[in-house]
Amino acid sequence: VERLNGGTVRLDPKKAITLGEENARLTSVEIQVCDVQPAGSCAGRTALTYFVSPDHGANWVEVTSWDSVRSFELDAEGGISVGDDIDPMAWAPGVPASTCRKRSVDLLDRGITGQQLLWKVEMMSTKADCTPEVVDVQLKAGAAINKTISRASPVIQANIIYAGAVETPADGWVDQKLRGHVTAGRIYDPTEPDHTLREEEPLWDAGEVLSSMNPDDRRIYFPDLDVRRVEDEYLTDEGGQQLIGDGARVNFSGFLAHSPVLATTLRIYDGHPEVFIDSGMAALKGSLGGKGIVDRFTGRWEVTFNRPPAAGVPIMASYSWYTAGHALKPFVPANVTNEMLALSDEYIWLDGYTNDFNRDGRFDVAETQTDAAWLVRLVRGYRQPETGVKKEWLLGPVNHSVPALMVPPGYPRWLYGTEVTDAERERFIDFQKTYQARQSVLFVGSGDGMLHAFDAGAFRHGDNPDIPGITEN
User: Mapping DSSP to helix (H, G, I), strand (E, B) and coil, where does residue 430 land?
Assistant: First the structure.
């Protein structure tokens, strides 16, 4: 029987840090914690996991890493005296026992915002007399009123500038979510290239155009996936040697036999209750406080157990992996399976099925798969997929994504280089002629997990015959 004590400490919701301005929303949080995680025989037997919530507990963001770590001591009056810096990448809980740590959390990046800030910490101990202690928690927050914020470079082609942005929520929005914008605007009128257009409205905003559409009319595609499951794979190191515990070693790393790995499906474990779970990000979280990382595309993983696996116990993994065909398939319920979305029939007592999205009290499998269909419709743009209620805004936040523009082939500098053969030059010129009249396409990523492709107009090299008397270069 494994002893496991735990609990949660949190800021009283009645004392949530609330923004004073009605139309303001939180955009970032800096959390600084000072705590004690006992060393000696208690080293590795306790864990403290911190979370912040910008929306009064509706969504919680886990702090999975730290920007800075410093030791500290308490003086006679109970004040904190901060000591030496510690490399955050090398720091392990309990070494030293008393540390102050700081982390900046970008809420815009996570697509979560709100007006009431809370924090909490989940405390865990596998030994009754090994008790972690939270000494101090401090929060600093950044906020913005309803504004459009651009955090990626624009792209300029001739007299057009393309730019992505994110808009913070405003009072009156039903969906209090960050909105994405992609705009095309003119820098100058081709007939007056010496005069900058400073105040002209954008030619179009892709967010507005997309949001005016019926979600069923959107053209969304995904790769043709073949998903396969692996159970209890014996893991090996980079050299192919099987990984087996010796009662002292806690760090293990290697490559999975198959990749890429389907997000959220990976479990790494030993003979003890510690199981490392893939939450969908790069980090792996151990059930007893251990930490790890995974690159799901290459299959490389690395974990640090809270306690060393016993001698002779193999390190194993279960996961789903996939192959993706070159053909793209429409992202509609008929083409999507539970396996592709990593949905399972996991059932939690009193809570019900984890993946019962349509809340009918069951998890649908086989031919129906209505829960997978519900999730597909949510992604396509329905706020209430079961009733067909549409989201107010269909484009996710365009935060750090620099737009990429595809136009008809131009005249690269190398084309007339001395090392280019006549045959190579002729093949490229044929390529130019083939695609000289193609539409321009603007590609940009957004926080809804999509790579979007927008019609960016018709860019043409040379003079525009539709404007007589003006010769464009």
Answer: helix
Cβ atoms within 10 A of the Cβ of 235, count? 21
pLDDT digits (tens, 9 = 90+) for 17-55: 999 888 899 999 999 999 999 888 887 788 899 999 999
Please say whether the beta carbons of 155 and 402 come within 8 A.
yes
Instruction: Report the alpha-carbon distance of residue 442 to residue 175 in Å, rounded.
Output: 27
Please tell me whether residue 14 adopts helix, strand or coil conformation. Answer: helix
Give the ranges where 390-442 is alpha helix by DSSP (H): 422-434
Residue 72 forms beta bridges with which residues? 82
Q: Is 256 exposed, middle or buried (0-12, 13-18, 19+ CB in 10 A)?
A: buried
Contact yes or no for 181/398 (Cβ under 8 A): yes
Prediction pTM value: 0.81
- Across 40-77, b (16+ Cβ under 10 Å) vs e yields eebbbbbbbebbbbbbebebbbebbebeebbbbeeeee
User: Is residue 209 within a helix (H) or strand (E), and if so which, with residue range?
Assistant: helix 206-211
Closest CA to 264 of 200, 346, 360, 190: 346
Contacts of 360 (CB under 8 A, 6+ apart): 370
Q: What is the rounded CA–CA span in Å between residue 442 and residue 299?
A: 32
Confidence band for 128, pLDDT divided at 50, 70 and 90: confident
At 376 the three-state DSSP class reads helix
